[in-house]
């Protein structure tokens, strides 16, 4: 099956710093990727849709200047949490749609962010 | 706004028993997904249901979709401990553009 990777898997940072999370599709090209966040014992919330070669589409209530998304190639999307604060601590998960196989969205392993 | 609700939120059941998890959604959609999540892990795809009346089975799990009732079920047959996990349903919000709204999740614990 298709594989989506994320890096790093865990990151701890100080308040005020920026953190970049990478999402890669390893064996297929993804014109569209999605970024979700998940709080402990809660469901996943869609943050934004990342489109290759164009601006990301953010969901209502998600600050685009805080969560910068770049989809520079068909296999890589990055999420940068700028000026991180403790309330940004969460589990961030990306997913990718292979395009040919519209039926399944493939999820990355997730990145656990802890902001001190 | 699309809302997706699961019932129950928590479920403890004994090994060998059968049970059903329900997923209700509030607006029209013909594409529903079931995922499994183990603690600290990401999502594992279980089923994709693409049409009214769709039924899919894999091992002890069976999923069905009734688009008219806006209801999907995940049925567990003769539960085993390995099925302990959190199960999410997710609905495609916009007919194939893959933006998913996730259900609240059902935390399933199988007791020996």
**Biggest chain-to-chain interface with counts:** A-B, 23 and 22 residues
Number of helices of chain B: 0
Contiguous runs where pLDDT drops below 50 for at least 5 residues of chain B: none
Q: How would you state the average pLDDT of chain B, rounded?
A: 91
How big is the Rg of chain A?
Answer: 13 Å
Based on the structure, what is the oligomeric state of the protein chains? heterodimer
Distance between the termini of chain A: 37 Å
Label the structural class of chain A: mainly beta
**Number of helices, counting only DSSP H or I runs of 4 residues or more of chain A:** 0
Show unreliable segments of chain A. Answer: none
H/E element order of chain A:
EEEEEEEEEEE
User: What does the main sheet of chain A amount to?
Assistant: 7 strands, mixed
Order of helices and strands of chain B: EEEEEEEEEEE
The backbone outline of chain A, from C-alpha atoms, is globular
- What is the helix content of chain A? under 10%
Radius of gyration of chain B: 13 Å
């Amino acid at each position: 099956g298709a594989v989506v990777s994320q890096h790093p898997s865990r990151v701890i940072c100080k308040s005020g710093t920026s953190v970049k999370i990478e999402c890669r599709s390893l064996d297929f090209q993804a014109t569209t990727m999605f970024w979700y966040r998940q709080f402990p014992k809660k469901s996943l919330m869609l943050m934004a849709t990342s489109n290759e070669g164009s601006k990301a589409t953010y969901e209502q209530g998600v600050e685009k200047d805080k969560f910068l998304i770049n989809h520079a190639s068909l296999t890589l999307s990055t999420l940068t949490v700028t000026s991180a604060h403790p309330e940004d601590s969460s589990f961030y998960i990306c997913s990718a749609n292979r395009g040919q196989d519209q039926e399944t969205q493939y999820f990355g392993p997730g990145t656990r962010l802890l902001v001190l | 706004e699309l809302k997706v609700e699961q019932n129950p939120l928590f479920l403890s059941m004994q090994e060998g028993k059968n049970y059903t998890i329900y997923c209700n959604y509030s607006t029209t959609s013909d594409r529903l997904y079931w995922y499994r999540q183990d603690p600290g892990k990401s999502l594992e795809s279980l089923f994709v249901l693409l049409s009214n009346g769709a039924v899919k089975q894999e091992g002890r799990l069976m999923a069905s979709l009734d688009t008219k009732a806006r209801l999907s079920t995940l049925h567990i047959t003769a539960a085993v401990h390995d099925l302990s996990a959190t199960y999410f349903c997710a609905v495609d919000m916009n007919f194939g553009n893959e933006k998913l709204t996730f259900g609240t999740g059902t935390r399933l614990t199988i007791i020996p």
